[in-house]
Amino acid sequence: MGQLPKHVLLVCVFLFTLPAQLLADSLSDAQRAYDMGNYAKAATLYRPLAEQGIVSAQSDLGTIYAKGQGVPQDYKEAAKWFRLAAEESDAYSQYNLALQYENGQGVPQDYKEAANWYQLAAIQGNALAQCNLGTMYYLGRGISQDYKEAMRWYLLAAEQNIALAKFNLGLMYAKGQGVPQDYNEAAEWYLLAAEQGHVLGQFNLGVMYAKGQGVPQDHNEAVKWYLLAAIQGNASAQSSLGAMYAKGQGVPQDYVLAHMWASIAAADNEEQRKSTETRELVEKLMTADQIAEAQDLARKCIAKKFKGCQQKKLK
């Protein structure tokens, strides 16, 4: 009789260990299917695990429905699974549920709920939630407007290398919101965002170099950052680049390229007036052939999604 409890103990350990191993294998199979792009299979494998309350499976299944991967896109279903995982303190799901509340996807739009879920995720260190919570405080959306709190959360997100947070910090320093106005600080944050490819960071840094705000005035640097933003499709940068070519600032004066960038930017309603003025100005100094060349370059540049647009011989 003295040996029986040991045998029973060994059997119980075996019985409880086996499901755990099967669970791990099932999760691995589902993740492998997802990584291979077999989303329908991944959804099928994740569902029973999610229904058993496995938080990671609930979170991943929410992602699949939110993105419509292997299943019809269904924000309501996504919110269901994100909520179950979020209630178990899964930061990624808290962030995604907040995003759905902010945008009214699968749930009624509710900024207060969004701010609440962003806060829970942000406290756990989710960088995107920290950035978005900063924006909620900045705009006073679902929470009392508070520039200092906005800056606090943007700083935490920026420390985790979120480019948007760096850009927003630059904007707040440039405007003196929550901090004394400081163009030097603004330029530094814009540079950090711009180096990560943030298009508005690139454009705003170009503006600062053009005006000499927070940095020495340098038209060459202004053109450099305008161009990087312009080839990402930023109309303000395209318009500014056209003006630089028209004036010969930071680049050799070139009416054809000035006309090209102005024409491209003019398609944007907000830049239409300014760009049209630049185009009409240079047209007075151009031949008919040069105008035709500029128009052809603009069409080709748009077709090539702004790649190689500085070359006058686009194919």
Q: What is the overall pLDDT average?
A: 92
- The CA-CA distance between the termini, in Å, is 90 Å
Assign an overall shape: globular
How is the biggest beta sheet arranged?
Answer: none
Specify Rg, calculated over alpha carbons: 27 Å
Low-confidence stretches: 1-18
The percentage of residues in β strands lies in under 5%
> In which range does the helix fraction lie?
over 70%
Tally of alpha and pi helices: 16
Number of strands: 0
Order of helices and strands: HHHHHHHHHHHHHHHH
Structural class: mainly alpha
Overview of this structure, please?
- The protein has 16 helices and no strands.
- The protein has a domain at 218-315.
- The chain has helices spanning 4-35, 39-51, 55-67, 75-86, 91-103, 111-123, 127-139, 147-159, 163-175, 183-195, 199-211, 219-230, 235-247, 255-266, 272-283, 288-303.
- It has 315 residues and is mainly alpha-helical.
